[in-house]
Input
Amino acid sequence: MSDVLLKVEGLTRYFDVSKPWLNRVIEREDRQFLTATADVNFEIRRGETFALVGESGSGKSTIAKMIVGLLEPSAGRITFDDQEMNFASGAAMRTLRRRFQMIFQDPYASLNPRWHVGDIIAEPIRTFGLASGNAISREVGRLLDTVGLSASDAGKFPHEFSGGQRQRIAIARALSSRPEFIVCDEPTSALDVSVQAQILNLMRDLQDEFGLTYLLISHDLSVVRHMSNRIGVLYLGRLVEVADGKTLFTHPRHPYSRMLLDAVPDLTLSGRRRRQVEGEIPNPINPPPGCAFHPRCPHAFDRCRQEIPQPVDADGSLAACFAVEEGRI
Amino acid sequence: MSEKTEPNAPRGWLYRAWDSDVSYSFRTSPVAISAGLVAVIIILMAIFAPWLAPYDPYDPSSLDLMDGFTPPMEPNAFTGNVYWLGTDNQGRDIFSTILYGARISLFVGFAAVVFAMVLGIAAGLAAGYRGGWLDSLLMRVADVQLSFPSILIALLIFGVARGFIPPAYRETMAIWVLIVAIGLSDWVQYARVVRGATMVEKNKEYVQAARVIGAHPFKILVRHILPNVMGPVLVIATIGLALAIIAEATLSFLGVGVPPTQPSLGTLIRIGQQYLFSGEWWILLFPAVTLLALALAVNLLGDWLRDALNPRLR
Output
């Protein structure tokens, strides 16, 4: 049993965003591809929380969907507990699928409105055949109890619950197949701030209780700081920096990470001037050559416009930046 | 009341059905109540026709041609028999024939709607969920079919089917051919509505959650997506029932529907219109009024259901 639970190598995903065939012929346009993620590499160790942060459109959710098999990677490998994931093969994947789960962003869309809560939570149990008969309802009651709801809620419909309670139900469903690894795709961004903390604390408690490993997708840096051991910063489908939580928040290396952290509102009123994130994320159909960040980067020089930087080790964090590589920042 | 019930105590499904929004909207809508009443009366009369009808219009041996053209509530000039709503050219009691005719009309209508619904839902779910070439293929077929009036398609299917069925079975098979013809001319609207709703539902996160655990696509379609797209389908089905009844009447009126020995409402209207200008108005009027009442009632129910199930109109 190795220390690394999930390993992602060279993960790349293109989307075909071409116009329909007839339009292309008449308007004489070529096929167009959108690069959602390009050559993403990272490892998640057993028991840790790995966070992916980035702006909208940076490919966070695409990576999450590829890991759980909702999207097929265009290239690259995903290895779960030393077994390569191959979603095309049924039987081998079945046992592997039980070991990971996903928590979704919108608790109003992630629960089927026509199903009883008990059936929603029991769906993974039934699909994987983990229990039968009365054992299922006992298990559902226990899970509802674990996430802070009552066992009698199993007979209700999702619309009878608030957003935070619905997210608890979604967490109970994710736990029901007794997974080791849970992908959390912006689990709190649809919730009120007061409820966010409750859900995050519940997730941490569950992590301690069941020894879970999380991949946390978020654009909220305070959530990420609260939750994660290690953080990967995504920009336009590429990982620009991977570092320990503490290191990233105290000594960000990559200019983009610095920009993100500078933009966080200062609640301690230390008088620090807040700098806005300048510019917008470029169009991923037609990304800038070289380092994708160079049009917005204050440290960009000629090399950045021509070559794509590879991640290099810089004081314990991995940063893909020529300025860092050459020791200029 | 000696026992206090808890406000949130779980109650039987009958109570929940009575307490639901749809039921409330029905109870407070006079149009829906009267339309429902008319529809229920006609449907019950059709179902219990063999017990309610004073004569059996399907039994040629009981008919007396001398009874033909008896006006309503008047004794026949030759035999002295009195019929409530008169008789037609062959001496069939109009009231009995209407009851039996409504039976055929309703049966054909219901069966055609169910057939169209099953076909349309299956095509719509497949096209919407699978997408790609299957979607293109099914929807182009639907487009082509929509460019013809549906009664023409029913006529075409009916004609082709008659060519294939041996003459000995034509009489007995006629009603099933009619159902298939009306159903096939009508599946497109179900397919379109279901396809659109499926394309919305399949991207919702609860479907993704089912896909993450590797649930079979068929199970996802039937257990997750189907219940969530049934609302609009039920509304079209109700209005579609009125249309199917009218389509059956139209085909029978044109003489391609049920055999003349088993007259439906449309057949009666066809017979009646031949004698309208010679003064025998009752042969046309009573079947036509029944058909009108039935189609109108079902249509009004469909309209009400559409409003009641549409959350945006609440």
Observations:
- Chain B touches chain A at residues 10, 204-206, 208-215, 224, 227-228 (CB under 8 Å).
- Residues 29-313 of chain B form a domain with the MetI-like fold fold (CATH 1.10.3720.10).
- The CA atoms of residues 160 and 286 of chain B lie 33 Å apart.
